[in-house]
From TrEMBL:
This is Uncharacterized protein DUF58. InterPro entries: DUF58 (IPR002881). Residues 57-259 form the DUF58 domain. It holds the Pfam family DUF58.
Length: 296
């Protein structure tokens, strides 16, 4: 009996789509690993002698926890399973969030990378650095719990490569463990309230970290004049003007106000803030990010 067309072509089609999805991952991870070499790899600064076996807290077991990780004595006193977390597991956990919004796809010239490419590269590079330093890295939205290893880096590359149709993404705090660290990478040009909510929740859990704003040089210089059509990357917003130059001062003022608000918010919650331009070296942003995570 011959197979129907559906049974022969569907797997091939699925394989093709899977290969298309996975195609950017090896180059991205390879580039991130190469970039990570710019950071001195040695004994990691946040390792502390004597902290490895200190009990931190119990938490409810999650589907990704193995049976070996469950504290059966504590679980026997309740209707659910619990895992005993050690202090070192918390202190050496770092959660990442990279804005997956459409606005991050902007590049003012073909010679510059889109903001999304640069943001993902830097985030994955810091994950490589931290993993090699003995830390566990995951995603702040809890899609990927913090772990170590090459497989974890591959999963990070895959998830960080996904986009959304919305102009701006919003960070979530679901994956932030108490007393851990976190990194948020975005252009931060969308609504600032989700960022403020996330950092407030993080501060309440004792989480510290870094905000890295990634901008295209044109977004800082506003080199537009005369008749210009401004359109959001998703196409949801559109504005046409005959005198774009008249908007420059007001735009630059609002950009400065946004940057000041982010810096103030970072200071108030014990975080670090910096801006990176896609025309600058990615290594400089990675070095700043590494140093920012070292600050207590």
């Amino acid at each position: 009996m011959s197979a129907s067309p559906a049974t022969t072509t569907a797997p091939l089609g699925l394989r093709g789509r899977a290969e298309d999805l996975a195609s950017p991952l090896p180059p991205l991870l390879a580039e991130a690993e190469q970039l990570a070499q710019t950071v001195l790899m040695g004994e990691h600064g946040r390792r502390r002698a004597g902290a490895g076996s200190n009990f931190w807290q119990y938490r409810a077991a999650q589907p990704y926890d193995t049976a070996r990780a469950i504290d059966w004595r504590r679980s026997g006193r309740a209707d659910q399973a619990f895992v005993q977390e050690k202090e070192w597991q918390i202190a050496q956990s770092v959660a990442l969030w990279v804005d997956d919004g459409a606005s991050m796809g902007f590049a003012s010239t073909p010679k510059l990378p889109p903001k999304s490419d640069r943001a993902r590269l830097i985030a994955l590079a810091i994950a490589v650095v931290l993993t090699r330093g003995g830390e566990r890295v995951g995603l702040a939205d809890a899609r990927l719990p913090p772990r170590r290893g090459r497989g974890q880096l591959s999963r990070l590359a895959q998830l960080l490569s996904q986009d959304t149709a919305e102009d701006h993404g919003a960070p979530e705090a679901k994956g932030l463990a108490p007393q851990s660290r976190a990194v948020l990478v975005s252009d931060f040009l969308g609504p600032v309230e989700p960022v403020e909510t996330m950092l407030t929740a993080a501060a309440d859990r004792g989480v510290r970290g870094a905000l890295l704003q990634v901008l295209d040089p044109a977004e800082e210089a506003f080199p537009y004049d005369g008749r210009t059509i401004f359109e959001s990357m998703s196409g949801a917003l559109r504005h046409e003007t005959l005198k774009a130059g008249d908007l420059r001062d007001r735009y630059l003022q609002r950009l400065a106000e946004r940057r000041d608000r982010l810096a103030d918010l970072a200071r108030a919650t014990g975080w670090q803030f910096s801006t990176h331009r896609t025309s600058d070296s990615a290594a400089s942003a990675l070095l700043w990010l590494y140093a920012a995570l070292e600050r207590r």
